[in-house]
Amino acid sequence: MIRLLNVEKAVDTKPSPTFLLRRITLDIAAGDFVTIMGPSGAGKSTLLAILGLLDGEYRGEYWFRDQAVHGLKPKARNDVARSSVGFVFQQYHLLDDLTVAENLDLPLSYRNMKPAERASLVADTLDRFHIVGKKDLFPAQLSGGQQQLVAVARAVIGRPPLLLADEPTGNLHSEQGREIMELFTRLNRAGTTIVQVTHSEENARYGSRVVHLKDGWLVDPG
């Protein structure tokens, strides 16, 4: 599904550029559950942003589902991201002025779907994630675990083949964190490819492979 060839990311600094990623070559197969680990500043979130097509400013090649996305213009890259990638953030990133149901509908609004089809998919997702009773609540009325559950539901409502998660349990207590990781496991078993960034050895055990970064270099491809 994913192939990176000599990917490098740098920022302009004086007297010379500062590299965030160096010569990253990495393959991720469809159906993998990959964990990216490393110390702070290793380049984990930078790599995840590139994988999620949020960042196109890098050198090297990125092939996603046999498509050379490194050669795409920003609009085309965004179109691929919206149709094929779900993203879960540590800070949830729900819109405070939208209800749970409206937050779930948001990513569908960017697609060419009829309103009735969108409403049906939202209803199915609310039921699938056991949050029907929360559909008219706003994020501030939910616990942290419930907000993250809604964030995961929003990320996968369009059934993307790739789910990326950046410290998805960082703001949750241990029981809530286990619930989210068990949910990831079920999604992975159903066919979703997952790549997560985490500092948690416990969370890493839910995956099938651990990739280690250090100072922007890939030191262990798992």
Give the topology, please.
Elements (H helix, E strand, L loop, with lengths): L1 E10 L6 E11 L4 E5 L6 H8 L7 E6 L2 E2 L5 H11 E5 L10 H6 L9 H14 L15 H13 L5 E5 L7 H16 L3 E5 L3 H4 L4 E6 L2 E4 L2
Parallel strand pairs: 3-8, 3-9, 6-7, 7-8
Antiparallel strand pairs: 1-2, 1-4, 4-5, 9-10
General description of the model:
This protein is of the alpha/beta class and 222 residues long. It has one domain: Rossmann fold (3-Layer(aba) Sandwich), CATH 3.40.50. The protein is 32% helix and 27% strand. It contains seven helices and ten strands. It has helices spanning 44-51, 74-84, 100-105, 115-128, 144-156, 174-189, 201-204; strands spanning 2-11, 18-28, 33-37, 59-64, 67-68, 85-89, 162-166, 193-197, 209-214, 217-220. The strands form two sheets. Strands 6-7-8-3-9-10 form a six-stranded mixed β-sheet, sandwiched between helices. Helix 6 (174-189) links the parallel strand 7 (162-166) and strand 8 (193-197). It is globular, with a radius of gyration of 18 Å. The relative contact order is 0.20. The model has no long low-confidence stretch (mean pLDDT 94).
